[in-house]
């Protein structure tokens, strides 16, 4: 016999069971229902369901067959269940015997498992943070968890996300799939003014339906305390899932399994709870200690998302649990958490009344969480950081003002230097012009000043082609003034001395001939040569 694929949906009046039987004959359907039992047979298919409530038989039952969809729909009405009390019973302290001081500690769904990690400690040490969970009581687990969170908290990382929150704001703007469903539910409630089952708002994909068919249907014997632990741990797991879905914007990655189990103390420390507030405190501490994005706004946003999912009903919760199951199943070390928690949650949640989940959402909504309650001194840290930031801002402003003053003074100094250089350059130009005029007016004075050291008895020497002779022009001027003429013979010095003197003059100065004296120099040269020839 084959178990057919089926869907269950419910409205205020009817329970609808859609069964897919593509290879069955229409004439061979057999349907049986009584109390909470429902049976369907159509060769080769057989389906048996045990419903959480009793089926009402009032003559309004009907069935239909759609050959195009290959589905047979049988609507039935189901009774509702009673209210659920969320108040925790207080019991007086009882002395524990020595034989019960170190019992094997339980964990898993409803604290129904034990001894799993005792034989697989090495293989599963990367999945959970607690060491030897089979021998660590709940109180010691909590102490170690709080110490580990305090040691892991990084003030620099927190302040970086606190001040540079552009990425955080972008994450907060993301709308996951349950946001649209929740908006539709609110609009429907405002229009009808009646609370109804909202399972029809949430649909399952074929892959999710295939996941559901692989689960084994079973019942869980939970006492009142264990039942509360199951509900509280569900909040803890959903908070971690909502954070992961939001920061990845619905795109799962290789870190998704790590994020979910790391942010949930239920999954990584096997923590147990006594109220909703301590769940929120624990989740807030871990968000600010472990993941990439550490901001208090993300804690509150995950809480808001969890409330919406719970208010949407068990179908929305089941859809989230199936997604978590898939993430853990694809992660090699985390699959054990499916066996300990998630698979049982997927089976158990289908039998839970959505009204209980709505009551749980109200309890979560009433929780008020502050930064001071997290025990990480966040307010003091933020105040100190803001004070440092204000001091740095004031210091930068002072530096900018002093820099502007320095720039202004340097520009004024450069302007004054430019004006001084302009005046001095004008003076230098005038001085150079006057010097050039003087040189033009008395070129012979320059020559005479160079010749002075080599003249005797105020006699002028004429330098011609390296030779030295008396300037006849000077002699003629002297004669015209009544002065006696000196001899036209060479100076009273020997030939070698004259040659030495000529060499010294060559190496010392080079005197250019003044204009207008070329003819005179030529005549003097000829006269000298004529006078020196007899001696040679």
Describe this structure in words.
The chain has 536 residues and is of the alpha+beta class. It has 3 domains: 5-78, Immunoglobulin-like (Sandwich); 103-379, no CATH class; 450-532, no CATH class. The chain contains 19 helices and 10 strands. It has helices at residues 116-119, 138-152, 155-163, 166-173, 177-192, 206-214, 224-247, 256-263, 265-268, 276-287, 296-312, 314-329, 335-348, 354-365, 378-441, 443-451, 472-480, 495-508, 518-532, and strands at 5-10, 15-20, 30-34, 37-42, 45-50, 55-56, 64-66, 71-78, 461-464, 467-470. Strands 1, 2, 6, 7 and 8 form a 5-stranded antiparallel β-sheet that branches. It has a 3-stranded antiparallel β-sheet with strand order 3-4-5, with no helix packed on it. Strand 3 (30-34) and strand 4 (37-42) form a beta hairpin. The model is unreliable at 96-102, 438-494, 511-528 and 532-536 (pLDDT under 50).
Secondary structure: elements and pairs:
Elements: E1 5-10, E2 15-20, E3 30-34, E4 37-42, E5 45-50, E6 55-56, E7 64-66, E8 71-78, H1 116-119, H2 138-152, H3 155-163, H4 166-173, H5 177-192, H6 206-214, H7 224-247, H8 256-263, H9 265-268, H10 276-287, H11 296-312, H12 314-329, H13 335-348, H14 354-365, H15 378-441, H16 443-451, E9 461-464, E10 467-470, H17 472-480, H18 495-508, H19 518-532
Antiparallel strand pairs: 1-2, 2-8, 3-4, 4-5, 6-8, 7-8, 9-10
